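--- STAGE predict ---
source: upstream dedup step, 1 unique chain passed
mode: sequence only
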Amino acid sequence: MLPLLTLSHLTHPFIAFQHFGSPEHHFFTISSPLATQIPQAAGVGYALKRSRPENVAVCYFGEGAASEGDFHAGLALASTVPSPVVFFARNNGFAISTPAAEQYHGDGIASRGPAYGIDTVRVDGNDVLAVYGAVQEARRRCLEQGRAVLVEASTYRVGHHSTSDDSFAYRSRAEVEDRKKIDNPHVRLRAYLTARGWWSAEEEEELKTRLKVEVLDAFKKAEKIKRHRLEEMFGDVYDEMPWNLVSIFGIVRLGSDVSCRRNRRPSLRGCSRSMGTPGSRGRRNSRSTKTKAASSQTSKLDHLYCTRCRFSYFIGMTSRCGD
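--- STAGE serialize ---
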């Protein structure tokens, strides 16, 4: 199967969520702002149609994003240009805490496709094979017709929206537990594979054990990776650094040998001295009488400022690193 170019919902560097992209795997970096990827996908689909006609774009979003204006702008653009995009709407019943009944009064998301002249299909989102078949057909139509297709996968979100969301504040725990038992896609797929003789309980336990080892190994490797320099967060934004960032970081071109702007020395890593207060010239941490936990926390903060003295300068601290 030829690769799909995928867009989904880039995060601001200081937001806790980790959103990734991969040019190698044809994944656009995803965006936190709701529904911005939908009109972008229409443009990407058109570009693919002109330059790589064997590919299509696929854009994932939830029914909450479909309530945004960008949804209508994206479908209108894809329909009139036209461009080969699979718009995949995951309707799980809740836009964070807003139930679908309070988002629209019509027949879901699928009913909007024909209004834009877009082929549309609604599929059981808890049936893995049905979803695969629907997307496969949608891709075929995109390639043959050069036009967009809308897929709505009807499902139910049994988990919380995020770690900061308590979904039991707006729905009952019993409702969630019932849906887990009645229409669980994992259970359904497992039952199908087992009935066909393609899967067993022993194979599943072996898989869980192996994957757990792989995940823990990946965690260990990730924990050993050194922190990136602060200025690297601009690496995918600018080719030439603008004047205001040059004045902060002392960088003319990204990827060059970066030195501290104030003392013209290489960036320090592993420095054990504290930045202290402005003008302290890097005196050692004087909080040695604090508890062990508090001292540990302080040293981490001091370490962060010390290894990035350009950042300390940026926030108004004029002292240099003492090492």
